[in-house]
Amino acid sequence: MEVKHCKTFNNNPNYSIEWGYATWSIDEAEEDKDRSIRNRYDKEDGGFNVRSSSEIPWDDFKRLIQESIIEKQSTNRELRLICKMTFLHLVKNIFKK
Known about the structure:
Blueprint lengths: L1 E8 L2 E10 L13 E7 L13 E3 H13 L5 H19 L3
Antiparallel strand pairs: 1-2, 2-3, 3-4
């Protein structure tokens, strides 16, 4: 995966989320590359645990979220949080100068 953005978490230094270009399209021109997201779990030796660090195509990730909502796999609390964060981000983008 060609990582373009990474978020780490203070409460778990061995875990991060990475966004970037998919492993399977690494040799493509930038405009043709597929996007993906990955949970990253680092090992003690500095590498990362491949079995636990799954890379998911961005379109599949979006579908997982959508289908989870449709299939009622989310709690009302989770849905409220998703709605709140989405709304706040949308407002921020609209009024961004």
